[in-house]
Amino acid sequence: MDHCHTILQLLPYKTPFLFVDRFLQIDENGASGEYTFRKEEFFYQGHFPDQPITPGVILTETMAQIGLVGLGIFLTKAHESKEKKNFVFTSSDVEFLKEVLPEEKVKVSSEKIYFRLGKLKCKVQMWNEEGERVAKGVLAGMMV
């Protein structure tokens, strides 16, 4: 069974607020996935309209959806029962290193720091297609 595809279907987001195209890998230690920021995304209309760049809050959300929420769904075994569970994003400490432009594909990977009592904390990183790290940080959340 392809748990990466199942977990994608179980994410509690829909377009225009789904920032995961696909998961590449998910296991008990972390997750990775990809997303392409399309030029039609709603936030580019107002975030520097003449020279749009992806807002940091959207980069953080992308890292959370792939590296935290997807991993949380796997760790709670919700993908085995196909039961939708909501995962609340509780904190972030993210550093942005490079800008992400429209039509850029990014790869996100996370490494579990801990998962206990329904709370998950991860180290998360994002790279562009050239392999340059564009953001890194620590994210936390919990199942509700």
Task: Describe the 3D structure.
It is a single chain. The protein is of the alpha+beta class. It has one domain (3-143): Hotdog Thioesterase (Thiol Ester Dehydrase, Chain A). The protein has three helices and six strands, in the order αββααββββ. The chain has helices spanning 3-10, 56-75, 78-81; strands spanning 22-27, 30-36, 87-96, 105-116, 119-128, 133-143. The chain has a six-stranded antiparallel β-sheet. A hairpin with a 2-residue loop joins β4 and β5 (119-128). The protein is globular. The two termini are 26 Å apart.
Number of domains: 1
The biggest beta sheet is recorded as:
6 strands, antiparallel
Order of helices and strands: HEEHHEEEE
Radius of gyration based on Cα positions? 15 Å
How would you state the average pLDDT, rounded? 93
Share of β-strand residues: 35-45%
CATH homologous superfamily assignment:
Hotdog Thioesterase
- Please name the CATH architecture: Roll
What name is given to the CATH topology?
A: Thiol Ester Dehydrase, Chain A
- Which spans of ≥5 residues are poorly predicted at pLDDT below 50? none
* DSSP strand tally: 6
Give the termini distance in whole angstroms: 26 Å
Count of helical stretches: 3
Spatial order of strands in the largest sheet: 1-2-4-5-6-3
